[in-house]
Amino acid sequence: MSMSPRWAAATVALSATLAVHAQLPPALPLPKGTNVLVGRVVDMSAETPIGGAIVTLTGHFDDAGKPLPGIPQFSPRQPTETKSIMTASDGYFVFRDLPAGNYTITAGTFGYTRGSSAFQVIEIRDNDKSAPVAVRLWRHAAIGGRVVDDRGEPVVGIQVDAMRTIGSGGSVSLSSVGTGVTDDRGIYRIASLVPADYIVGVLSTTTTLLASTAGALDLSAENRGTYSATMAELRQGGMFRTYGCETCYSSPSDGQRIGDFVFQRLGPTLPIAPGGRPLGFPNAFYPGTPSPNEASVITLRSGEARAGVDIPLRFLPAFSLSGVVTGPDGPIKHQVVQLVPPGIDLSDFDASGRAVAITDARGAFAIFGVTPGQYTLSTVRLQPENELTGQGRPLWATQQVTVADADISGLAIAMQPGVSVSGRVEFRDGSTRPAQRQIVTLQPFRAQFWRTLQAVIQPDGSFRSAGDPPGRYVVNTSAPPGWFWQSTTLNGKQMVDEIIELGSSELTGLVMTFGQKTNAVSGTVTDSNGAPDADAAVIAFPADSTAWREGVFSSRRTRRVNATSKGAYEMTTLAPGEYFISAVSFRSMPALNWSDPRFLDRLIPVATKITLGVEESKNVPLKTVTVGRR
């Protein structure tokens, strides 16, 4: 059984995570102590106990058994072994023989979620007589409804996605967090959702493969050599965006055979229109629009099961697009081409909502099942010569296409070299550059993931990227141990958000400065009664809203930490500048997407404004605020 794109992406992400953890030293044993931690797991909305929940405690100590300083979620050291226990029927749990130190605690059970608070930070001191810790969980929510066609007839076997949104304006970035499939009545149900805001839709996802390419992507054991060789070429041709045979939504040999091609659609095979053309449908969002910008937002409360979220699908005669992709050296084989409808900007891990094709040995491609409308045809290629040194020849192409009432053939997609970025790194106080390897990467504006050729910083501190398509990017860089990225300038001007825009010519003059000290903002969080508030998250975000209003969030500029059980918080390594900072009760943000621009906008009137320098430390006490949802 083959994997859907979403499961494939999750598998890739999980494999990467496991690979990282495999390189870390084993977890340290938890030192013995004399302290006891008593707590209770309760329902967040009803405050009723939850029995049978699994509670997991992780300590944060160095290899000498001493507590690591600061807040543990920013600890660079490997945590200790975990301890787990099940709550009694009254929701209580007890951990014994604990040394003084910092801990993180999580809890989970069927039907509940941690929501916006993935863990709590616990501070334990010797002879501490603190009150029992409350670990609160939200009930899962659900969305259900019916999918019907133009005549009101049920659409059977179609996938429906519940999506979270980021950004605003002309394009909304979507991330699917749950799916359901319609039954023989056209009814679907998406369960196990966290209480939050969603849009719901049916995404038109198709793949057109040459039959020989589909066969080469067969995952069977006897085809392993061919599969590996084909994948090696496809990774250069943009398959990192759609993760390989994970563009296949069934077995590579399945799908609708059209001439020399295999046409695969996520969902059932559609009938032929009266005129002889195959049917297709555009993306459809509740309550019945092809644009996510016009979709209705569904707000789910804890344990809520929302019904009646019905989605009409409009079936239309579908057409085909075909053409040839060429580069500086001629036609390009095994290049991934994507056809993207307007207003949709899905996660880079996922090709949902788009049409994907792969070129043959002559650079030719075909895309079937395209309904009338305006689209962007795009393709990106990596041609790495040496990824360790950042050498290569990235290529790109983009073209606007309008599909009316006829097939389109003869498209000439000429890929051209990417645009480079160059600059240097500097170290404060005249220090010489450390010997450790450093890199610079570019992340496309609002993208969640990007496999680009990294630029390696040379011994003299200079760097130059291999090139990327024109557009806006967020600059990222690594810091040697003991050094901190303090500031960034472009042609001598301080950059607010490390956002650059690539045009038609190389961008020069980017300077990143490192120092051996960093800044910090810390303090205590108290509730309305003046008591330390452990049920709060502290959020800092730039006073300049240019980036975050468009859904761009950098950990150097936007940060969230959980208050500890004693109400303490700390943030370090923020980029210098002006910020809003606020402590928000978990109870007022039940799994809210805290990085949603609409949420941050509502925080501004109740936030504290601060200015933070590159090596400045500030103590900012905060009172917990409750933010309503609109």
What would you say this structure looks like, in words?
By secondary structure, the protein is mainly beta. It folds into five domains: 31-139, Immunoglobulin-like, CATH 2.60.40.10; 141-204 and 280-312, Immunoglobulin-like (Sandwich); 208-265 and 318-417, Immunoglobulin-like; 421-515, Immunoglobulin-like (Sandwich); 520-625, Sandwich (Immunoglobulin-like). Helix content is 7%, strand content 42%. It has four helices and 51 strands. An eight-stranded mixed sheet has the order 15-16-14-27-25-29-32-34. Strands 44, 45, 46, 47, 48, 49, 50 and 51 form an eight-stranded mixed sheet that branches. β23 (319-327) and β24 (330-331) form a beta hairpin. The longest helix is centred in the first third of the chain and has 18 residues, at 5-22. The radius of gyration is 26 Å and the shape is globular. Residues 1-24 and 240-251 have low confidence and may be disordered.
> Number of helix segments?
4
Q: Spatial order of the strands in the main sheet?
A: 15-16-14-27-25-29-32-34
Share of helical residues: under 10%
Silhouette:
globular
Strand content: 35-45%
Assembly state here? single chain
How is the biggest beta sheet arranged?
8 strands, mixed
Quantity of strands, as a count: 51
What name does the CATH topology of the largest domain carry?
Answer: Immunoglobulin-like
User: Do you know the CATH architecture of the largest domain?
Assistant: Sandwich
Which structural category fits the helices and strands?
mainly beta
Give average pLDDT, whole number. Answer: 83
How many structural domains are formed by the residues? 5
Low-pLDDT ranges: 1-24, 240-251
Full CATH superfamily name of the largest domain: Immunoglobulins
Radius of gyration: 26 Å
Would you state the CATH class of the largest domain? Answer: Mainly Beta
In whole angstroms, how far apart are the ends? Answer: 43 Å
